[in-house]
Amino acid sequence: MNLLFITGFDLLLAIVSTSLQFGFAYRNDLPRVQKFSFPDLVITGQRTSAHCTAVSGTPPMNFKWLKDGQIIKPVQKYSIRSGADYSILFIEHVDLTTSGNYTCELTSSVGVDKYTTVLEVKEPPKWIKEPKDLYISAGENISIECSAAGYPVPNVTWMKLSGYKDGPEEVKGQQQIRGKSILLKKHTGIEDAGFYICVADNGISKIQTNGIILSISGKM
Ligand SMILES: *[C@@H]1O[C@H](CO)[C@@H](O)[C@H](O)[C@H]1NC(C)=O
Ligand SMILES: *[C@@H]1O[C@H](CO)[C@@H](O)[C@H](O)[C@H]1NC(C)=O
Ligand SMILES: *[C@@H]1O[C@H](CO)[C@@H](O)[C@H](O)[C@H]1NC(C)=O
């Protein structure tokens, strides 16, 4: 007997039927759905689907899909294709609001079974605030913000391209907060002048801004 698919109620039924019949009875007439999930990585703008299969149950059976407990109607981005013992939920143009708990509910004249799985949509980073070139005098304070949206919320980092080094280097002392970074400098000096970029990375993808030039004129 496959105990994995037996709920408490069914176990009770099984025990009752066992004690009555002096043997185990498979209840293949009881509707039962197989565990399912969405793909590991679902990105905004894509389409996706979930497949719900009835491993047992006697037709006629009825499949119902729910998102966060609300019945999904096959309109707009949702469509549903069902057979006697399966149902597929298709979702077009996935966005962040598509994330949620999805339930497949299977009903027949003798019972109900359901399974719920979570869909967590990911979004590549995109810029909200990109910096512009800045001309200042030595000794001034600067505070330049870069910010990006995405899911997961990206890490934003200021990098400086220095003339003599190979690649860009992370700027020291920048203030990194969720989804943004502020290039903060008190009493700028000539050595702060140069070419800067911001990089946003959320593990889904990595983007960078156009470079900006920080020009600093010396005091005469
Ligand atoms: C799914 O349900 C769980 C438990 O109720 C909840 O904590 C979680 O936030 C839900 N996930 C989504 C994406 O709504
Ligand atoms: C720069 O910041 C320092 C410390 O906060 C402050 O004392 C100073 O007045 C600021 N300088 C300018 C030019 O705003
Ligand atoms: C941001 O950086 C921290 C520290 O390196 C890392 O643990 C975290 O996973 C990063 N977040 C994302 C969304 O990539």
UniProtKB/TrEMBL annotation:
Annotated signal sequence range: 1-25
Example GO biological process: homophilic cell adhesion via plasma membrane adhesion molecules
Keywords: Disulfide bond, Immunoglobulin domain, Signal
Positions of transmembrane segments: none
A GO-annotated cellular component: plasma membrane
Residue ranges of domain Ig-like in the record: 31-120, 125-215
Origin: domain of life: Eukaryota
Keyword Signal: yes
GO MF annotations, alphabetized: cell-cell adhesion mediator activity
InterPro entries the UniProt entry points to: Ig-like_dom, Ig-like_dom_sf, Ig-like_fold, Ig_I-set, Ig_sub, Ig_sub2
SMART domains in UniProt: IG (SM00409), IGc2 (SM00408)
UniProt-listed Gene3D superfamilies: Immunoglobulins
The protein, known as: Down syndrome cell adhesion molecule-like protein Dscam2
